[in-house]
């Protein structure tokens, strides 16, 4: 297991030295909104929606004062727009009432906001506040299991704990992006592009399902 982690991390460090969020944002507030919208939705779709949304609602005050129906009109092309519109308004109201309109830099506090779960909180912590945490989305969950970085993890939290145990804490924020981008463009859900992958030497899936064919 440790040899696999060393190999995978070394390959990413050499071949993907710059790895960042593909969401467009200019502040903690914008990143929080974009990450909430990105739940079960593509970053590409969210990036199409947020310019007009942020122009109309440039801060938590404006978003908190809006009608849910108006918020919905701006985000109706993303997944689950009804729920997300309600959550965005509730999140903004809670920022004003509990945090002086500022996005907290603590994951536990972030999770007290409507519509903000552990993954979203960890994204804001890692990406904006540069905290040493490991957000786990569907790509991270799938890719880490497929490569063999995790074993028997049945939930995102179990995946997070296993990855955090083996990856040096200072690498957690960028390792999150490494796994996401690898899952988005190479290790695809339905058919991984093993012929294009530089991780086959350390990949459990490749060893078990491809190499033996």
Looking at this protein, list some descriptive labels:
213 residues; mainly alpha; Endonuclease Iii, domain 2; Endonuclease III, domain 1; 2 domains; 0% strand
Short description:
With 213 residues, this protein is mostly helical.
Overall description:
The structure is a single chain. By secondary structure, this protein is mostly helical. It folds into two domains: 2-18 and 134-210, Helix-hairpin-Helix base-excision DNA repair enzymes (C-terminal) (Endonuclease Iii, domain 2); 28-128, Hypothetical protein, domain 2 (Endonuclease III, domain 1, Orthogonal Bundle). It contains twelve helices and no strands. The longest helix is centred in the middle third of the chain and has 19 residues, at 81-99. It is elongated and about 55 Å long.
Shape: elongated
Spans of at least 5 consecutive residues with low confidence: none
Q: What is the share of helical residues?
A: 55-70%
Number of discrete domains? 2
Number of strands: 0
Proportion of strand residues? under 5%
Structural class: mainly alpha
CATH topology of the largest domain: Endonuclease III, domain 1
Give the H and E element order: HHHHHHHHHHHH
Q: Would you identify the CATH architecture of the largest domain?
A: Orthogonal Bundle
* Mean pLDDT over the residues: 96
CA radius of gyration: 18 Å
CATH class of the largest domain equals: Mainly Alpha
State the fourth-level CATH superfamily of the largest domain. Answer: Hypothetical protein, domain 2
